[in-house]
Each structure stands twice: as C-alpha cells, then as structure tokens.
Design brief:
The chain contains six helices and 35 strands. It is an alpha/beta fold and about 550 residues long. Helix 1 packs across helix 5 and helix 5 runs antiparallel to helix 6.
C-alpha cells in the first residue's frame, strides 16, 4: 500500500506515520521529545522537505497524551515535535513553587537547533527530510498562550527568562483551547500584535477551562490577517488529547473524542499547509469551503485584501510565480493598453484580470475572472484547474475552456473551444456569428447571430443555437462517442451538417423517441433533436461535405 494517498481537499497527504524519541540536547535539562513524521515513498525522499511543527503542551499534560493529534497533523506533511518541558515556577495565587510540565518560549530555538542536528545526522530517521528554515507553532491551553506570546516577539513574564527573540523560521501558528489575557481570568484581552505571522485559534464550544467567550474575545485582538477562529461544537478543553480528562475539565463533551481530536488536527494541519507551504487547496478549504463540509465546526476568518498588480501602457508580460509582484493568488490585475500576456496558471487562483485596448492573451488558474478588452483577445482556461469565468468583451475573441468553466463571448465573431476540456462547462456566444468546438458534457448557447457548432469525438452536450440560422455539425471526420442534444433546432432555418465521413442522407436512420428525433448511423447515435418529429425532416435539412 502506498504511503501517499490520492486526496481530496481536506484529506491528509500521507497515509502512514512513523515516530521516534529524542532528547533535546540544547535544553538545560535535556527535554525528552516525541517526533512524528509521515512515511515518504522512497522515490520522493530526495525531493521532499517537511516543515517543523512544534507542539507546546498544555500545563501538566504529558507529551504521550498528544500522540493521536500529532500523528494526524504529521500526515498533512510535517515533522511534529512534542517535547516534555519540566520546570519550576511560582504559583501566582499561593506564592509557592510548582514543578511540572510547563511550556516556555525558549523551546522554539531549542527545537529548531535540535532539528538541524537531526536533519544532518545520517542515523536520524528524518535525516535530509526536514525543512529547517520553516517552523509552525501548535499549542494547547498554557502551551498555546506561550505560542501567542512568541508570535508577538515579546518576553512574557513566567514564560520567558531574560529575553526572547522570535526566530525568523517561525511562519505561522494555530493553537487550541487558548485565550490571551493579561493574567489568568483577568478578563482583560490585550492586543495580539502578530505582525506578518498568520495566527489561528481553535476552541471547543464546551470548554470550561479556556471558555469560548474568552477565545472569542482574543480573536478580534489579533491585529493582522490572515487570522481565524475555528469553533468545534460539543468539544471540551481536552479534545486535542487521546482521552478526555474529567479530573481537570468538569464539562463532558458531546462529540466523540476521536472525532474531536481528528477535527482539531485536520484544521491545524490545513492551516499550517496553507501558510507554510502556500497550499492553495488547503487555503480554500480552511477559509472558504471547510465549514460547509464539516458539520462540527464554525469558522470566522479574515484574509488580506487582494493585491493590486498594474501593467503599463506598453505590452506587458505578467507570469504568476515569476514576476515578483504577481503570485497569481487573489490578485487584482489591470493591464491597460498594449498587447498583454497575463498567465496566472501557476498561481493559486481567485484572481480578477482586466485588460484594455490591444489584443491580449489571458491564461487562467482556477476560480479566476478574466475580462477581455476592446480588441481580439485569447482567454485560455484549459491549463487551469477549473471553475473560471471568461468574459470576451468586444472584438473577435478566442476562448478555450477547461472544466466547470463559464464563458461569455460578448460582441464580435468569436471562437469558443471546449474540445480539450473536462466537461461541466457553460458556454455563451451572445451576439455575433460564433464558432463552437464541442467537448463532452457541456452546455452551449449560441445567442444572436448565425452560429456554427462543431462536434468532435466527445458528446453528451446540450446545444441551444439561439436566434437566426445556425449550423450544427453533428459528425466531423469521426463519429461522436455519444449523441449531442440540440434543444431548439428549427426546420427550414437551421441546418444539420456532416463532414469528412462520406455519408449521405440514405445512410442515416431517423428514429422517434417520444417527442424527439434520434439521428443514427448504423449503431451510433449522432444527435437528438428535441421537439422534432422524424417526419418533419427531409434531405434539405442536411448538408454532407
């Protein structure tokens, strides 16, 4: 069985996880730690680098209690490090010393240093696999508080001795069962100055230790997006651990413990993937679709506004991930004059691209909105991953579709090509004498004008010619795999054409199916004419080339 799985959005990337124990040599007491990492297929080990995810434990919670959570997060593509950090602090209520498992801020630098050693040690199970330049923070309860203080680059009393400097490797953090108050139960929620660090909170609706209203009060204090609050219905303070803890949490959960832990881990892993690895699928799940797919959660989030990208009055070349100011993810691009090329296919999508005068070429990623200008433009979506909207505007445009795209040709005599697409497209010619090249499983509307529809090897399309005389080329040099449906054929106005096969009218059978006609050659159905009786058709309705 392969260690990597074919995943849908929201699923882990890897199926198998391994773990081992180590001692963090740079810590004063030699903290023991458990390390969880996905099993990478042998063919991919030389090219795979896994970011570090440091889990800062809750107060007095042993590292072993997080094994289920850490294993799931690791499956999303991380080396998860869970240390036991034992130290002595003064109880602020009693003034007495307390010794136990208590996270602190210096663990960030200690774990980073240790993982550099692990990555370079050929005897280490993770040798060569660790991205030592990228760190994500995870935290539970008190450990989450330590994480929020660290994200702010402050040395917080009781969490830090002397000084603290946020390591540059820290790129994102998400914590569970944590609020940020000036002191325990103070009800005072200071600003969380997270700078450019994406910051997430996960809360249980039944948490009586870090109560939901406290976490909700912390969320608006996080100053900079991206930020998020994920609320898990029915979860209590120990949803993140292997077992519930009735001794320290008086409220019992109404969600199954395994489901709760998986939910916390999934949302944690996807948050880190979105921000540490620029995983656009993870970003989309976390910020846009996930709470609609997961009935156990409610998500409140904020992401930065779209980045503005401008062209010039000359001919521009903008390529996502190549031009430094254009990453192709949620960008607003305005090119203006000139013969421009805007290619967002290597970006994450959700861009809006507007062109001006000049014959432009626009290439979509996914969920993009491309707007052609006044002249003859090319709008290309077959290289993307679908759900784009393509608007031709004026001019004689060429629009090439992928899957689940929508194309609106506008004015002019346009070419709309879905022949290499994946189906599920909706294609509108609007005005002008347009050419349509069909793929499979699409819906096409010619609109005004004398339009021509060319069938290729696919089929199962629905065609509405629209007003005026249209030509339906129902077979061209080969027979279609399945018949196409023509919804508005007008006898005596529209024409059916067959080219390059050597057929004539006598080779066709016109069969009745309810109120419709099926045009058949041998055992192959070519087309279905809705609302047309076979007797109403004659050779004059066909042209053979």
């Amino acid at each position: 069985m392969s260690a990597i799985i074919e995943n849908t959005i929201g699923d882990p990337l890897y199926q198998q996880v391994s773990n081992y124990n180590l001692t963090i040599s740079s810590s004063g007491g030699g903290d023991p730690a458990d390390v969880y990492f996905p099993v990478i297929p042998a063919a991919e080990t030389s090219t795979t680098k896994l970011p570090i995810a440091l889990l800062l434990q809750g107060a007095l919670v042993d590292k072993s209690d997080y094994s289920n959570y850490a294993s799931i997060v690791a499956r999303y593509g991380f080396v998860v490090v869970v240390p036991n950090n034992e130290r002595t602090v003064t109880n602020p209520s009693t003034g007495q010393p307390v010794t136990g498992l208590l996270a602190e801020q210096k663990q960030l630098s200690e774990v980073l240093a240790q993982m550099v050693l692990e990555n370079s040690n050929p005897r280490s199970p993770v040798a060569g696999l660790v991205d030592t330049e990228t760190l994500g923070l995870l935290g539970h309860s008190f450990g989450g508080f330590v994480g929020l203080a660290s994200i702010q680059d402050i040395c917080f009393p009781g969490l830090c001795e002397g000084s603290f400097t946020k390591p540059p490797e820290l790129k994102a953090g998400i914590v569970f069962g944590t609020s940020f108050q000036t002191s325990e139960n103070s009800g005072v929620f200071p600003i969380v100055d997270n700078g450019d660090i994406p910051t997430g909170l996960i809360a249980g609706s039944l948490d009586s230790v870090a109560e939901l209203f406290e976490v909700e009060s912390t969320y608006p204090q996080i100053q900079n997006p991206p930020k998020a609050l994920v609320t898990i219905e029915g979860a209590n303070h120990y949803a993140i651990t292997n077992e519930d803890n009735p001794q320290r949490e008086p409220v019992r959960p109404t969600i199954d413990q395994g489901v709760a832990t998986e939910t916390v881990a999934r949302w944690s892993g996807l948050f880190l993937r979105a921000h540490l690895l620029n995983d656009f699928d993870a970003f989309e799940y976390f910020y846009e679709e996930g709470d609609g797919l997961d009935r156990n959660v409610t998500v409140t989030s904020e992401i930065p506004a779209s980045e503005l990208v401008f062209g010039t009055t000359a001919s521009d070349r903008l390529n996502a991930q190549i031009n430094s100011n254009f990453d192709g993810f949620r960008d607003l691009v305005i090119t203006g004059e000139g013969r421009d090329l805007v290619d967002s296919s290597q970006g994450g999508g959700r861009n809006r691209v507007y062109t001006g005068t000049g014959s432009d070429e626009l290439v979509a990623s996914r969920k993009d909105r491309l707007f052609g200008g006044e002249d003859n433009d090319i709008l290309e979506a077959s290289a993307g991953s679908g759900n784009n909207r393509l608007y031709g505007g004026n001019g004689n445009d060429e629009i090439i579709l992928g899957r689940h795209d929508r194309a609106f040709a506008g004015l002019g005599n346009d070419t709309l090509d879905a022949s290499s697409g994946g189906g599920g497209n909706r294609i509108y010619g609007n005005e002008g004498n347009d050419l349509f090249f069909l793929g499979s499983g699409d819906r096409l509307l010619g609109g005004a004008g004398e339009d021509s529809f060319f069938v290729n090897s696919g089929g199962n399309n629905t065609i509405i010619g629209g007003t005026e005389a249209d030509q339906f080329w129902i077979a061209n040099a080969q027979l279609p795999d399945s018949p196409n449906t023509i919804a508005d054929f007008e006898v005596g106005i529209d024409v059916l054409r067959i080219g390059g096969i050597g057929l004539q009218f006598s080779d066709l059978q016109l069969l009745s199916e309810g109120a419709n006609t099926i045009i058949v050659n041998g055992i192959t159905s070519l087309a279905i004419l809705q609302g047309i009786a076979p007797a109403s058709l004659s050779p004059t309705d066909f042209i053979f080339t």
